[in-house]
Amino acid sequence: MNKTVFITGTNSGFGKAMVELFAANGWNVAATVRNREQHKGLFDQLPTVRLYELEVTDYAQVDEVAAAAIRDFGRIDVVVNNAGYCLMGPTEFTTMEQVERQFKTNVFGLMAVTKAFIPHFREQGGGLFVNFASASARFNYPYIASYGASKWAVRGISESLGIELKPYGIEVKTIYPGVHATRIFTKIDHGANADNPEYQKHYKAYYANFLGAQTAVSGVTSPESIARAVFKAASKPKKGRLNIISGGDAKMYEWMKRLLPERTFQKQLVNTILKPISPLGARLFKWVLGSETSTLYTDIPKELTR
To answer: Which H/E stretch holds residue 128?
Structure first.
């Protein structure tokens, strides 16, 4: 009997790459998108994939879709909590409504999906949750305090549940991607306003340097690489690492944070906003990312940085 994986947020990036990889390897896939009308024909060419409409912040819908997937496939072996987006910008100008929305999707939505499947996993004697955090849950960057905090929350949830659910044969693994070629930079909620004179005076130059460093190279780590990491984790749920760091930049900063004194590490990140990235720095960044790269898509309003 083929195994079945349930994956949230599959219209692009990591989610789409994972659906295609799991299907290619004979898995059944329950894939979700926020709006099916906007993604007509998605995965139609993959006979083992079934597409569901799901807004993870609609908790009643989460329960309904989880029950439907279990009913349709008979059994779910792996749940991948991938859905999320990034709130970016100076914290001073980020509204509390934006912060609440960030946590509602990245944290509360993940919790809702997880809770919906725990009884199923417990009753069948096992299962695996794979939760998407971020490299920013290992070392957070400037201007993404809320996004990084939401991913630190995912890290904490995963660690606690990994212990709590172990007696029932349920495993929990966490993925920490660095900069990858997904459309995360086209789904940004900007905590900044170009018309705000205080932003123009105090933050614009530093924010421009930060964004310039993130987009210094056109090709960054491909989503297919992390899809393979997730597939490997899913294929051997009771083996392998519980915390999987993906991407050359994520691994480099993880190493630096362990090696350097706290203030020295902080200074390295402060320097990324004090001045634009140099050509040498861009070349180093490209080298760190490795050879398996894809195009980095961005949608950043020009008036925020120019």
So the answer is: strand 127-132
Question: Rounded to an integer, what distance in angstroms lies between the CA atom of residue 61 and that of residue 34?
Answer: 11
* DSSP structure string for 168-223: GTEEEEEEEE-SBSSSGGGSEEE---TT-HHHHHHTHHHHHHHHHHHTSSSEEE-H
Going by the DSSP 8-state scheme, the letter that residue 277 receives in this structure is P
Q: Where are the alpha helices (H) located in the chain, listed in sequence order?
A: 13-24, 59-73, 96-103, 110-124, 145-164, 197-202, 204-214, 223-235, 248-259, 262-274, 279-289
Concerning whether 147 is annotated as a catalytic residue, the answer is yes
Beta pairing, strands 49-53 & 243-246: unpaired
Residue of 147, 176, 207, 253 marked active site: 147
Using CA atoms, how far apart are residues 302 and 286, in angstroms rounded to an integer?
A: 24
CA-nearest of 75, 22, 77, 69 to 50 is 69
Indicate if the alpha-carbon torsion angle 262, 266, 267, 268 is positive or negative. positive
Residue environment code for 238-273, b if the CB has 16+ CB neighbours within 10 A, otherwise e = eeeeeebbbbbbbbbbbeeeeeeeeeebeeebeebb
Cα–Cα distance, 160 to 166 (Å, whole number): 10
- Per-residue pLDDT of 4-15, as tens digits, reads 999 999 998 899
Nearest partner of 43 among 57, 26, 29, judged by Cα: 29
Name 173's bridge partners: 130
Band of residue 294 on the pLDDT scale cut at 50, 70, 90? low
Cβ-Cβ contacts under 8 Å for 277 (sequence gap 6 or more): 209, 212, 213, 216, 285
Contact (CB, 8 A) for 243 and 159: no
Best mean pLDDT range from 104-108, 182-186, 191-195 = 104-108
| CA-only gyration radius of the chain, Å | 20
- Residue 297 pLDDT class (50, 70, 90 cuts): low
